[in-house]
Amino acid sequence: MKPVYLRPKSLTETVSHYCPGCTHGISHRLVAEVIDELGIQSKTIGVASVGCSVFAYNYFEVDFQQAAHGRAPAVATGIKRVHPDKIVFTYQGDGDLASIGAAEIVHAAARGENITVIFINNAIYGMTGGQMAPTTLEGQVTTTSPSGRTHSVQGYPLKMSELIATIEGAYYVVRCSLHNPAHIARAKRAIKQAFENQIEGKGFSMVEVLSTCPTNWRMTPVEALKWVEQHMIPVYPLGEFKTGEGE
Amino acid sequence: MDKRVVFNEAHCKSCELCVWICPKQIIHLKQELNPLGYRPAYVSDEDQEQCISCAMCARMCPDAVIEVFR
Question: A interface mutation test: which of B9, B15, B48 has the most A CBs within 10 A?
Answer without folding.
Answer: B15
